[in-house]
């Protein structure tokens, strides 16, 4: 909705190309920019690409094609490159292509001002999407162990139910685990020792079931949904986990 151009510019070109990690760049602070070796990737995501009113179906774009020497547009074509910055980092480019007489038209300058305001809204939208992703991630993570929590478990089970209803189920198995002796540890050694005991047991589960999601659904209750290699080796891994838990 932000990209409606003024009358007379319907046949111009309008492209937005962004670094595939542009959402992660939103949270960079200037001091962290030094850890990045490039200001953008050679292959960038095509957010929008429109020429003569026709949308492109391309999903990625090679950054070298932004240089005029690689284009075959002929004489009289003018390109305007507007870096899209997040903090001090270049996340990508907005590229506009016009004929040279566009610069004699005051509507061109009004439009470029409009694009500046548009990019601010665009970046705000990216921040909003990224914030929602972070909040969703936090809502599904157990604070003590950092594995998935009961909310994530319910959502995962619902997704499995949908695949079964659709007739496209995948192979999986469910292991339910209760940690023994937690109450005794809490009563005799304190809750800090109990928390450490829970984390150690959880760490053992994650190390054994490397290809499957682990969920903490209660104080001492865990569920592992075995998938892929873990499903194929479920009997051996179950024996291994029993041994690990006895040692814990």
State the end-to-end CA separation.
Answer: 58 Å
Uncertain segments of ≥5 residues (pLDDT<50)? 1-11, 30-37
- Structural class, please? alpha+beta
> What amount of the residues lies in strands?
15-25%
Kindly summarize this structure in a few lines.
This protein has 248 residues and is of the alpha+beta class.
Summary tags:
248 residues, alpha+beta, six-stranded antiparallel sheet, three-stranded antiparallel sheet, 7 helices, 40% helix, disordered N terminus
What does this entry look like structurally?
The chain is of the alpha+beta class. 40% of the residues lie in helices and 23% in strands. The strands form 2 sheets. Strands 1, 2, 3, 4, 5 and 6 form a 6-stranded antiparallel beta sheet that branches. Strands 7-9-8 form a 3-stranded antiparallel beta sheet, with helices on both faces. A hairpin with a 2-residue loop joins strand 5 and strand 6. Helix 4 runs antiparallel to helix 5 (191-208) and helix 5 (191-208) runs antiparallel to helix 7. The longest helix has 34 residues, at 106-139. The chain starts with 12 loop residues before the first strand and ends with a helix.
């Amino acid at each position: 909705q932000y990209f409606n151009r003024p009358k007379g510019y319907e046949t111009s070109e309008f492209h937005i190309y962004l670094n595939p990690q542009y959402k992660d760049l939103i949270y960079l602070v200037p001091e962290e920019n030094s850890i990045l070796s490039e200001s953008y990737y050679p292959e960038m995501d095509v957010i929008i690409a429109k020429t003569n009113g026709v949308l492109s179906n391309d999903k990625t774009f090679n950054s070298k094609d932004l240089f005029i020497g690689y284009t075959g547009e002929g004489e009289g074509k003018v390109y305007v490159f507007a870096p899209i910055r997040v903090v001090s980092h270049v996340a990508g480019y907005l590229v506009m292509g016009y004929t040279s007489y566009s610069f004699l038209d005051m509507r061109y300058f009004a439009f470029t001002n409009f694009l500046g305001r548009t990019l601010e809204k665009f970046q705000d939208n990216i921040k909003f999407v990224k914030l929602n992703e972070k909040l969703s991630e936090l809502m599904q993570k157990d604070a003590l162990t950092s594995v998935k929590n009961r909310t994530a478990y319910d959502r995962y089970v619902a997704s499995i139910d949908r695949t079964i209803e659709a007739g496209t189920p995948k192979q999986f198995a469910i292991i339910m685990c209760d940690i023994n002796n937690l109450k005794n540890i809490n009563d005799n050694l304190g809750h800090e020792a109990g928390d450490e005991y829970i984390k150690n047991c959880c760490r053992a589960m994650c190390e054994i079931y490397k290809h499957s999601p682990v969920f903490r659904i209660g104080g001492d209750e865990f569920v592992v949904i075995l998938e892929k290699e873990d499903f194929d080796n479920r009997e051996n891994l179950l024996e291994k986990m029993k041994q690990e838990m006895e040692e814990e």
